[in-house]
Amino acid sequence: MLRAFTSTDVDAVYDACQDEDIQHYTPVPVPYQRADAEKRVGEDLPAGWATEKNFTLGAFRKDSGALVGSYCLFIVSKGVYELGYWAVKEQRGRGYSVEAARALCNWGWAALDVHRIEWWAMVGNAGSRAVAENLGFTVEGTLRHRGVANDGLPHDWWVGGLLRP
């Protein structure tokens, strides 16, 4: 189930973001404090929706209500959005990220003026790449030293694109 994050999700977001992979592959603060989760859920995400620049939803299991991950579409330029996501360590490898990201992309095609969705991931993030390829993204290349990660070092990044069906 995809829905907006609420204050009741702060602990789950905080717990998920303690994962070393999330801290390495995504731009979350390190160390990740509970105050970071409170700000993200209580301020940053609602502001993204209000300004129509960042549409982030949480994915939750229907059976248990457990957090699966965070999935967002955020505007890059007119008609171009980037798909971003992270998944809770215990929920990976079950197909939930593909299901959630596909639903969000389909919503983007229907509700937003989107002609291209981009995906970026640090080289080595095989899980993210597998999700993107399963969604139909074409991996378009590798950008050398595209960004500096939380470890303070520049890393290569993959880039992919998905065009309006």
Automatic annotation (TrEMBL):
Xref: PROSITE patterns: GNAT (PS51186)
Keyword Cytoplasm carried by entry: no
Keywords: Acyltransferase, Transferase
GO molecular function: acyltransferase activity
Signal sequence annotation: none
Gene3D superfamilies named in the record: 3.40.630.30
Top EC class for this record: transferase
Record has Transport as a keyword: no
UniProt domain N-acetyltransferase: residue ranges: 1-160
EC number assigned by the record: 2.3.-.-
Name of the featured protein: GNAT family N-acetyltransferase
